[in-house]
Design brief:
The chain has 7 helices and 6 strands, in the order ββαααβαβαβαβα. By secondary structure, the protein is of the alpha/beta class. Helix 2 packs across helix 3.
């Protein structure tokens, strides 16, 4: 089990925590599975509300625009043909659901891979607590600044971090997640992860099942 330092708001080591090798120090990397899980997440976020009108949906075109023969022009039965200006769209997009599911084992394996990479690159920092004494963005920035981390930042919290969460809501480079909401995309989309001690223990319990 890797021993990881627990730091306070000024990055002073206040203790250590034992984390599982299989979750935070996995040697085998599964890039293809991580890619598949990220695609699944992004596909699930698509609204799929795009829509176009086919030739039967466009208004007008009830009569034949000109005679079949004698004019030297191509035959036409309606002015709403896709080859006419103002006509329908050929094979245009229609509302659809883009989401697809990925097995739970693959999602867990992808999380373990990303967490192991972050830990090996010293971008996963365990803190004793994320709580601050009042709801104030300045206080939250002081706590983040004391940790000397690179932005954008992902903060994984457990219980009792309400003041911190409400203080960083308007910071564009700080995202907060509960352990239950931990996902591969958000882990990859940040430069540094700070994780409360109780949240790190909860991550182990969640991924060990």
């Amino acid at each position: 089990m890797p021993k990881v330092d627990i730091v306070d708001g000024s990055k002073k080591v206040v203790g250590q925590i034992d984390l599982s090798d299989s979750i935070f120090a996995a040697e085998k990397r599964h890039e293809s599975i991580v890619h598949q899980v990220v695609l699944s997440q992004l596909a699930g976020r698509r609204r799929g509300t795009h829509s176009t009108k086919g030739r039967s949906d466009v208004r007008g075109g009830g009569r034949k625009p000109f005679g079949q023969k004698g004019l030297g022009r191509a035959r036409a039965g309606t002015i709403r043909s896709p080859i006419w200006r103002g006509g329908g769209v050929t094979f245009g997009p229609k509302p659809r659901d883009y989401s697809f599911s990925v097995p739970k084992k693959m999602r867990k394996l992808a999380l373990k891979t990303v967490l192991s990479v972050l830990m090996s690159e010293n971008r996963f920092i365990v803190v004793d607590s994320l709580e601050i004494d009042e709801i104030k963005t300045k206080k939250a920035l002081e706590k983040i600044g004391g940790l000397k981390v690179s932005m954008p930042l992902l903060a994984i919290h457990g219980e009792g971090a309400d003041n911190f969460l409400r203080s960083v809501r308007n910071l564009p480079d700080v995202k907060t997640l509960n352990v239950n909401g931990l996902n591969v995309y958000d882990l990859l989309n940040c430069e540094t992860v700070i994780c409360a001690k109780d949240a790190a223990e909860a991550i182990e319990k969640r991924l060990a099942k």
